[in-house]
Amino acid sequence: MSAPLYNRDILSLAVATADFPPIDAARHRVSARAPLCGSAIILDLDTDAAGRVARVGLHVEACALGQASAALLARHAPGQELAAIRSARDAMAAWFKGEGEVPQWPGFDLLAPARDYPARHGAILLPFDAAIAALEEQAAAA
Questions:
Q1: Contact 76, 66 (CB under 8 A)
Q2: 11 — phi, psi (to 5°)?
Q3: d(CA 55, CA 4)
Q4: What pLDDT, on a 0 to 100 scale, did the predictor assign at position 1?
Q5: How many whole angstroms separate alpha carbon 104 and alpha carbon 8?
Q6: Three-state DSSP state, 118
Q7: Which residues make Cβ contacts (< 8 Å) with residue 80, sequence separation at least 6?
Q8: pLDDT digits (tens, 9 = 90+) for 82-114
Q9: Cα Rg for the chain, rounded, in angstroms?
Q10: Is residue 62 within 8 Å of residue 83, measured between CB atoms?
Q11: From start to end of 62-121, where are the E strands?
Q12: What's the CA gap between 21 and 4, in Å, rounded?
């Protein structure tokens, strides 16, 4: 039997997005929407001189899984470069399709029950897509 889709850990992560309020003067602000479920995110991102994530701010309108994913991104993205976040996102998407191992992003194992719910995959990937867009914007400006 599979784990419940919404459990205490997911709900705790979902409310943790409040720990990452929007950043008024962020270097990058990206708005993104998951077309299948309608989840939306405004992701504020600051980078350091080397282009690594320095801090993340969030405004998330998504299911608890999308919110939990956003909190995991915000917690663990600082210090990461574009390649690492893109690699994690690609590993998640592949794993959702039944390919590869469980992605190594910290805390992703808590989102594993969503594998059997394809309608939720877009909400989980959305924060990573937004971070990639912000970091690509950074790279293009450099």
A1: no
A2: -65, -35
A3: 31
A4: 41
A5: 21
A6: helix
A7: 52, 53
A8: 999 999 999 999 999 999 888 999 999 999 999
A9: 14
A10: no
A11: none
A12: 29
